[in-house]
Each structure stands twice: as C-alpha cells, then as structure tokens.
Amino acid sequence: MKPGRLFLALALLAVIILMTIFIYRSMMDITTPRQAFEPPVRTQPQLPKQDTVHVGVISRFSPNLLYEGYQPILDYLNRVTPYHFTLKLSSSYEQTVAQIEQDQIQAAFLGTFLYLKARKEHAIQCILKPLNSQFKPHFHSVIVTRSDSPIATIADLAGKKLALPSPLSFSGNWVIHYEFQKHGLKTGDLDSLHYFGFHHTVIYHVLRGNFDAGVVKDRVAEEFLNRGIRILAASEPIPGSPIIVKKSLDTTITRALQEALLQIDVLQPEYRDLVRQWDPEFAFGFAPAHDSDYDEIEKKIGAIEAVP
Q1: 88 and 54 Cβ atoms separated by less than 8 Å
Q2: How high is the pLDDT of residue 293?
Q3: CA angle 283, 110, 135 (to 5 degrees)
Q4: How do beta strands 286-288 and 238-239 pair?
Q5: What is the third-level CATH fold of 141-235?
Q6: Alpha helix segments (H runs only) across the chain
Q7: How far apart are CA 149 and CA 143, in angstroms?
Q8: What's the start-to-end Cα distance of the chain, in Å?
Q9: What φ, ψ does residue 188 adopt, rounded to 5°?
C-alpha cells in the first residue's frame, strides 16, 4: 500500500476508535441525570367551564331527610342540563333568607309564607311550584290530633297545648292569623304554644301526647293517617311552595332549570321511576309559577308578619 493511502486508513481508524470511546463513556456516565423520554402531549380541546348554581332549602325537615329527598332532584338537573347544581342546607328558615342576601345561593326551595316575606326585601322571583297527588299546584295546611283525641273543632283548642313548626312556616301563620280569628280564638286562650324546627317533630309530639294538637303540611300528616293521627281541619288550597331564583341569575340557567323540571311527566314509566327517591312534595311534577299566583293568599292572611 502506498504511504499516502496507509496514512489515511490509519487516520480514519483513529477517528473511529475515538468516537467509539466517547460514545461508550457518554452512555456509561451516571453522574449527570438523564432526562426521561416523554411522549408528545396531545392538546385536549378546552371545555367550557360549568356554571355552578347553589340551591338552598328551608329547614322544614331534618338534614338527613332534606338531603335524601332533595339531592336526587339536583342529581337529575346535573344530568340533563349543562350546569352544576349543588345543595346548600341551612339550620333555620332565616338562614336560607340570609344565604339569598349574601349570594351564597342563587336558587332555593322556599315555603309559601317565607317567600311572601322574602319577595318584599330581596330581588327574587318564583319560577315553579309542585303539583300534588291530584296534579293540582297547591297544598293544604292541616291541624292534626291523635286519633283518640276528644277535640272535634278548632274552637275546642281553647285551653289546649298546640305544637307548630317554624314561626316562618305558612302552617303556623295560617292558624294564628286566619283560623283563630274566624273562630274567635286568641293565642292567649291556649294552655301553651310551642314551635319546633321540623314538621315531623310536631307530629311526634302529638303522637306522644305531649301536645293536644299540631299544625303541619298535608303531605306530612298523610304519612301518619293510619298510625294514630287524624286531621281536624284543613286550610283552603294554597299555591305550592315555590322554587325561586335570584333575578340576577342568568336567564339561560333559569330557563334550563324550568324546562328540565317541567318536562317531568310521572304518568310515563321512566319519570315515575325517576321521582321515586324524591321528596314526596315533588313526586308529581311541577307547574309554572308567577309572583302574582301568591297575591290572593297574602291578602287573606293579612299583614305578613311572623307569629310572635
């Protein structure tokens, strides 16, 4: 081989050897942390952020009963609307109103009496009211006694012990401001009058004989008609306890809420199964509600003031 070619061959061999040594040392060097291989990230399309609506409910029943009866309604709304509805309980009727005022809730299940008071002071509107078992959008407040009680008329309550739910419930105010006046009674004619937080508590005290009579919503009394309770008197039909929203709530959300609940038809098997776990007050569907629906009952009760 000519000297020139030999030199080139030796030079190429030297380069190969040096490169091999460099690569080997680079691969075997553990002093420098090696960056792990990561597959390319696929960009996911950005989904629109869900609007969250906090929904209040007055404390007419114990917290566990409220959660069991109302949370399934919100679960349904979360499935059929693009919004997220979350339940916010309260420890009193007054706290629900405070939650409205402080914008902690944007919608609520209110009682009729509380709604009449709250609409005077807050920018709210009613949008729905529940149907009863006859598919009518009203309920009755009722006076109940034990089945074996000798009390036969409202006038017979003189000298007796009367149990009522919250002073802000319609039931108590109907009796005190309306029925007592019709029958010539005053609260001073009673032996005693006591308020309890929940309608069911009123029933239990009457059943135990702690009170001679009590006042509750008809649907609560009906649970106990064959269990030692009878109905002494009932109010005229009262517009159902309204679902309200703040007027500041996006009208698109309000409309979605209305449409989702108005489409419920319990004559259809799929909806009948759906409402099985709902609070019985809402187990027959809903009707549209308007503020004017409640004007007449407000006039009949008179000045809307909480029972002292």
Answers
A1: yes
A2: 94
A3: 30
A4: unpaired
A5: D-Maltodextrin-Binding Protein; domain 2 (3.40.190)
A6: 3-28, 63-80, 93-101, 112-121, 170-174, 180-182, 199-207, 218-222, 251-262, 269-274, 295-301
A7: 13
A8: 122
A9: -70, -15
Least confident of 76-85, 160-169, 268-277, 298-307: 298-307
Instruction: Kindly report, residue by residue over 262-301, the tens digit of the pLDDT.
Output: 999 999 999 999 999 999 999 999 999 999 999 988 887 6
- Give me the pLDDT at residue 299, please: 81
What average pLDDT score do residues 121-131 get? Answer: 96
- Cβ-based neighbours of 287, under 8 Å, separated by 6 or more: 128, 129, 130, 131, 137, 240, 262
302 φψ region: left (φ > 0), alpha (ψ -120 to 50), beta (else) = left
Cα–Cα distance measured from residue 297 to residue 44, given in angstroms and rounded to the nearest whole number: 55
Domain boundaries, the chain: 52-137+239-301, 141-235
The domain 52-137+239-301 having CATH identifier 2.40.240.20: the answer here is: no
How high is the pLDDT of residue 3? 53
How far is residue 237 from each of residues 113, 153, 168, 217, 230, measured CA to CA in Å? 14, 20, 19, 11, 19
**Site of tokens 């799929």:** 270
Are domains 52-137+239-301 and 141-235 of this chain identical in fold? yes
Sign of CA dihedral 272, 259, 295, 301: positive
